[in-house]
Amino acid sequence: MSDTIVLKKGLNIPIKGEADLRVSKTISPDVIAVKPSDFKGLIPRLLVKEGDRVLAGSPVLSDKKNPDILIASPASGTVCGIVRGEKRKLLAVLIKADDKQEYFDFGVQNPDSMSAEEIKGALLKSGLWPWLIQRPYGIIANPDVMPKAIFVSAFNTAPLAPNPEFALGNELACIQRGINALAKLTGGGVHVSLCDGNYASTPFHKIENAVLHKFEGKHPAGNVGVQISHICPIRKDATVWTVSLLGLAMIGRMFSTGHYVARRKIAVTGPMAVEPAYAEALPGTPIKAFAGFYGSIADQIRFISGDVLTGENVGEDGFTGFYSDQITLVREGSERELFGWIRPIRYKQFSTDHCYFSWLTPWRKYDMDTNLHGGARAFLMNDAYYAKVLPMDIYPLYLVKACLAGDIDKMEKFGIYEVLPEDLALCEFVDPSKNDIQDIIAKGIDLMLKEMA
Description:
Blueprint: E1 5-7, E2 23-26, E3 31-34, E4 44-46, E5 53-54, E6 59-63, E7 70-72, E8 77-84, E9 90-97, H1 116-126, E10 133-135, E11 139-140, E12 150-153, H2 164-168, H3 172-182, E13 190-195, E14 211-217, H4 224-231, E15 240-242, H5 245-257, E16 264-269, E17 277-281, E18 301-305, E19 312-313, E20 326-331, H6 383-387, H7 396-405, H8 408-413, H9 425-430, H10 437-452
Parallel strand pairs: 1-14, 2-17, 12-13, 12-15, 13-14, 16-20
Antiparallel strand pairs: 3-9, 4-6, 5-8, 6-7, 8-9, 10-11, 10-15, 16-17, 18-19, 18-20
C-alpha cells in the first residue's frame, strides 16, 4: 500500500438530490436500445436485422476496424427496430425484451487457470471487451496491444455520484475474479484507487492481486485519469487501460456463471427527482420507464444519462447509456434573472469565487438548474483560474487553445495524451467565458485520432 496521495485542487459541487441508499423500483422495460454512440472509436457493423431473435449476450454490433470486438444485447427478445439518422447513420438497435430473460451460455470458466489469450478471447466473444478503455484518447482498447498497466477507480467524486459500496459492495467476489482475469493481460499489474476517507470501511480494500492506492481530495479525485496522472503519467508512446468497478463485476460474473448479466443499480438523482433513490434496470432502458421519479413535469426537466458535469442530455424519449449507472434530473433554466449579478445577496446561488453571501453557508445544497446566466464571452487569459480545479500537472488553458487551433505539436506539449473531456469538466463549470471546454477537448482528441492513425 502506497502513502495517501492528497489532492489540494478541485471542487465539490453542492447540488441537491443525492439518492437515498435504497432500491425503490425494479424496472423491466418493454424495449431497450443499443446505441453505437456510447462506444467511442467504434465504427459499427450491424449483425442483426428486424425480426431477429437475440439472447442476453448475443452479438448485435461489431467494429468494422476490428470485427472481434462485439457489442452484445443486454436482454433477450426480438429486434423490433433499426433507427438511422442522416446518411443512414446507425443510431440505435431497438430490442423488444422478453418477460422472462434468457441468456447465451458462454460456459463457466476459471480465469486463474486460463492463459492471457484465452481470457482475451472470452471477453471478446462475450461482448464485455468494450468495458476496457484505452488511454490516451478514451477509445475501446485494442486487443492487439498489451497495456503498460490497468487502472480502476473504486470511488466516485462526481456530483451526486452513486455510492459504490451500496451499488456493488455485494459483488466483491465477482470484482476480484475480474481483477484476476485482467491481471494476466498486462505486465504492469492492476492498480485500484480507493478513497482515504472510508478506506477501512469499504469492502474494496480487501481486493487482492492488485496494487492499491489511497487518494484524498475533492472532485475530480475520483476520476481515473486524475489518478493515473499521479501514479503513472501517460506519455506519447505509452498505452494504459481503464475499467470501472461495474465493468469488473460484469466480467467476473460472466466467468462464474457463463452469462452476460447487465442489470445494475442506477442512481436517480438531481433537484427535480421525486424521492431520489436507486432503481434496478438494464443499460438502454427508456428514460420514460423512470417516470415515477419525476412525475408529470417532464417539459421542465433536462434528462441526463450520467452526472451533471459529463453526462449526456438524452431527453425524455432517450435511453440510458451502456456505461451509465446514474440519471440526473435538473430543471431547464430558461428564465432571465432581474438585475443578474448586480443583485447584492443571491443567497440561493452558488459561486466558486464567493461573489454572493452563500459562501457563508458552506453546508448548503442548491437547487441548481441549466441556466448559464449569460452567453459566450471573451476567452479568459488566466490559466490559474482553470488550474485551481484541476489537480493535474498540465496547462489546461493552453491545451484548450491548442485544440481550438488544431495545433498537434502544442496539444502534445500541453498534455492531450493525459486527459479526456471528463477530466476538464470542472474547468468548464467554473469558466466565466462559458466555453464548451469538454467539446473542445473531444474535438482535439478526434483530430489526434485522425492524424496519428
